[in-house]
Amino acid sequence: MRRKFHLLNSPKYFSISEDYGLFGVSERNLNQLANIWKGDIVFYYTVHRVGLRTSGFIHGPFEVISELFYNDKIVWAEDERRSGKDKYPYRIKFEYLKEHTCRNPIPIQIFWDLKEEGKIKTVIDSSALIDKAVITLLDEEGILLLQALLQTNPKSEEYTKRYKGHNFSEEKIDLLKFSGNRVKEFVMEAYLEAYLLRNPEIIHNLSGFENGLDENYTYDILNQVSTYIAGGAIDIACLYKKKVLDMWLAINATVFELKKGIIDPFFVDQLIGYIEWTGRLIPGVKHRMIKGILIGRDFGNQTEMKNELKKHIEDVKGLYSISCYTYSVSRDNKLLFNSLED
The whole model's pTM is what? Predict the structure, then answer.
């Protein structure tokens, strides 16, 4: 099993999450949690009072022991709009890593020191720890955090408490939620992103791996990657590697910009910015090997906007590899993707 690393963020609720063995997000942040899978390793950023000051710490490692699920039993805070329901009903279950349990956290300064050394790239500054509930880390970043925690906790300890939330029911989440009658549109962009993350074969297909990936290929998916580009974030970035001479070598990457509605030609320029950022962010990835993909709702009768988008993509063709797909919903409620050129 190939594990991924993630950093969970909650300055207020760590002690409750630890007691329950749960982490949750609101509906609008569903996409941030959708990239976490059972067996992944998570760290937990929070703050503690030290004397008269409040300081940041990272706890972990924890192992994720469930897939993403829905449960609105109150754990952290009641939703003001839904009496008797929790504000964060989209959840995962986790537990301290049994192979080596670390009870002592590391100060956040260790994390920033690693960033100053150029070893942390997925977190651009402290705002990312405020704006994001979940940050997916590059493998090498996760290994560095794991190592720092083990160095602070060279001897494994036991965690003997019973996790209060591990017996909670796990309701499957319907990610295909739409509005509209004749032309259906996702109710939130978060659902479109979450659907793609939970169905990575679609990401691979659109990226050019129509026949899937065999044992000679592997991939890393990052989502909601913070950037300095208009305060935005890369919706999805997927890095592909091939095994050659027993080494995993980066061969290409795909950057996705997602819209629940129709795609304005302006978003081509935004995607170009994200392509450039990805080339700076991910080690081994160069601008020329990055493919950009725009996904939005079917244009319906809006042919003028569609043709303008096609022209804008054609204008940058010599410099950037950009494709566009529209989604539509079949009568039996299946999601279909069609190339803009079809």
Answer: 0.92
